[in-house]
TrEMBL record:
This is Glycosyl transferase family 1 domain-containing protein. It comes from marine metagenome. SUPFAM superfamilies: UDP-Glycosyltransferase/glycogen phosphorylase (SSF53756). Keywords: Membrane, Transferase, Transmembrane, Transmembrane helix. GO terms for biological process: lipopolysaccharide biosynthetic process. PANTHER family: GLYCOSYLTRANSFERASE WBBK-RELATED. Residues 175-308 form the Glycosyl transferase family domain. GO terms for molecular function: glycosyltransferase activity. The lineage of its organism: unclassified sequences, metagenomes, ecological metagenomes. InterPro entries: Glyco_trans_1. Pfam families: Glycos_transf_1. The chain crosses the membrane at residues 57-75.
Length: 328
């Protein structure tokens, strides 16, 4: 590389807070061009931008990332794929996963096999990458998300509130994130307050989801506003049917919430041996686990959970991993 600050192309098809976090990390030691786009012309933009970049990074394995990897290899440059879940995990009943389109599989397999580095966020995704790529995975390195423990931290007195954060704009997404199950749990626990963030209440009613009186529904909000909800809530509940990591769960842990999660994907890996794991689609087990979690509010569990998340999901660790690969 000829410049003290390598030129990095970061590509994604969507804007998400966790991608923005990675952009900020990369900007600390490189010049970043972020292309967030989709459509036919996007392939041309990727190829053209790689001509003037030292490293190409794509969030999610896809047809676009295959184009990025191919171009980088042709130009003898470094390519990095960050896999996130929907690119590797498929559930036809929930309409979930890029691989529901069979024609995309060869492109995703190529991207995984030929990228210089592939970064799953969990061991669960690492195993999925091996399966989809059908290879030995020598280019795989598990790198968890980096969360700012100075920002995500406890504050004030905990209240008997059960919080769920799940950005849902489709009926399938409601099912994927287990919001329908959460509403059933809330109905059984009528004396407990529930807070659901990331969904429009009128969307739930239009799609015939019953919202009990003890559930407050709020749309997606800024991280600054979200922080106060994590700080007030005693329990964080994630009843997903599919979940590759669970960033919101980790954020909640940093804020001292006791997690109750389904035993799917990478969620149990995220919380470790602290907190509560329940079988998927088991409303009774989830209700019982939440009752137990609420009794642990004043115990040392919240502090242990924060310590685990603060040690395991550090910004510095993710930054150093990126740095080593960008400068390799």
């Amino acid at each position: 590389m000829t410049s003290p600050n390598p030129k990095v192309l970061l590509f994604s098809t969507q804007k998400q807070s966790f991608i923005e976090d990675d952009v900020r990390l990369l900007e600390e030691f490189s010049d970043v061009k972020w292309i967030c786009a989709h459509g036919l012309f996007t392939a041309v933009r990727i190829k053209w931008s790689m001509l003037f970049s030292d490293v190409g990074i794509a969030w999610f394995a896809s047809v676009y990332s295959a184009i990025l990897v191919f171009t980088a290899r042709f130009l003898r440059k470094t390519s990095i794929i960050i896999v996130g879940g929907a690119d590797l995990i498929t559930d036809s009943h929930l309409g979930y996963g890029l691989l529901l389109s069979p024609w995309k599989r060869p492109f995703i397999r190529y991207a995984l096999r030929r990228a210089t580095h592939v970064l799953p966020t969990s061991e669960y995704l690492r195993r999925a990458a091996l399966e989809v790529g059908e290879y030995e995975g020598d280019n795989l390195s598990t790198v968890p998300p980096g969360l700012d423990s100075n920002f995500w931290q406890p504050g004030g007195q905990k209240e008997n509130i059960v919080l769920t954060v799940a950005k849902c704009t489709t009926k399938d997404r409601i099912k994927i994130k287990g919001v329908d199950l959460l509403l059933q749990v809330a109905e059984k626990m009528s004396e407990t307050s529930f807070q659901l963030i990331g969904v429009e209440e009128n969307f739930l009613s239009k799609n015939s989801f019953f919202v009990p009186k003890n559930v407050v529904v709020s749309p997606s909000m800024s991280q600054q506003k979200l922080l106060s909800y994590y700080q007030r809530s005693a329990v964080y509940c994630q009843l997903s049917r599919v979940e590759s990591f669970g960033i919101a769960t980790a954020e909640a842990m940093l804020c001292g919430c006791i997690p109750v999660v389904t035993d799917v994907g990478g969620l149990s890996e995220t919380i470790g041996d602290i907190g509560h794991t329940v079988p998927p689609e088991n409303v009774g087990a989830a209700s019982e686990a939440i009752h137990k979690a609420l009794k642990e509010v004043n115990s040392s569990s919240g502090e242990k959970l924060r310590n685990r998340a603060a040690e395991k999901f550090t910004v510095e660790q993710r930054k150093e991993s990126f740095k080593a690969m960008v400068f390799s």
